[in-house]
Every structure is written in C-alpha cells, then in structure tokens.
Amino acid sequence: MMHMTFYWSKNATILFDGWITKTWLGYILSLAALFLAALFNEYVVSRRILLIQASKSPGGLRKPLMGDCTEPPPSSIDGRAVESILFVVNSALGLLLMLAAMSFNGGVFVSIVVGLGVGYFVFRSGDRIGSGAAGREAKIREEACDTSCCT
C-alpha cells in the first residue's frame, strides 16, 4: 500500500518493489544506505563546486581536484566534460533520494535529511569561510602540491 502521509514503521517500500524492508535489520541497513547515498551526494556537489571555482580562477585549474598534482590541468573541453559528468551523477542521485523520501516513511526521510546535513558539514561547510573540511583540504593540497607540475 502506498502511504500518502508520513508513517513510522520498519515495513517500507523504498524506490522499487524489490527494496522492501520487513525486519529491523533490513530497515536499519536501508537507512544506513540512504544516509551514505545522501553523504555521497554532498561529496559530489563539493567536487563539482571545486571544479567550477578552479575553472573560473585566473589561469584555470592550478590545484588538483582529486589526489596528487601529477598531471597538467585539463583542457577546457575535459574540464567541462568532468563537470557535466559530476552534474549528471549529482542530479540522478538527488532525484533518487527525493523519490526515496517520497516513500513517506519517517525514518527514511530523517536518514536522508541527516545524511545531507552531515555531508554538507563535512564536505562543504568551508566553501564560503575557508574553514571546515573543504578549507583544510584545500590548504593541505596547496602545501603538498609542487606547483611546478601545474604551470
């Protein structure tokens, strides 16, 4: 039965008929999976924002997006392709999370919202103020990257 109001139960159908939780263990694992998916969604958003900011900075991408600074900056078309892929992944995951929340199960909704909140705190809280995980990560990368490989 499709619920049209929020309900609290371990019995939930999430996204499709094959993902039905009937036991507490299955329900808790499903909530954990949705939490991690929401967390990953915020990670993808943070990488996409970092790529956009780097492409708008003078001289293009000077700091590595992920990993060590071992390759020259990507060409304009490569950067746009990576940005487009990240956008597609972010959009698809966001829509799937929205559909899961539309199961109207209270635990599913809370798990997704908390996952998005924790993901924002961990990956994006330093976007504006230069602190938090994103700010620390950028500072570490700046110090660890030998800029001679990127110029």
From TrEMBL:
Its main location: membrane. GO terms for molecular function: copper ion transmembrane transporter activity. It is a multi-pass membrane protein. The keyword Chloroplast does not apply. Pfam families: Ctr. Keywords: Copper, Copper transport, Ion transport, Membrane, Transmembrane, Transmembrane helix, Transport. It is found in: Membrane. The chain crosses the membrane at residues 24-45, 81-100, 106-123. GO terms for cellular component: plasma membrane. The keyword Protein biosynthesis does not apply. It comes from the Eukaryota. Belongs to the copper transporter (Ctr) (TC 1.A.56) family. SLC31A subfamily. PANTHER family: COPPER TRANSPORT PROTEIN CTR1, SOLUTE CARRIER FAMILY 31 COPPER TRANSPORTERS. This is Copper transport protein. The lineage of its organism: Eukaryota, Viridiplantae, Streptophyta, Embryophyta, Tracheophyta.
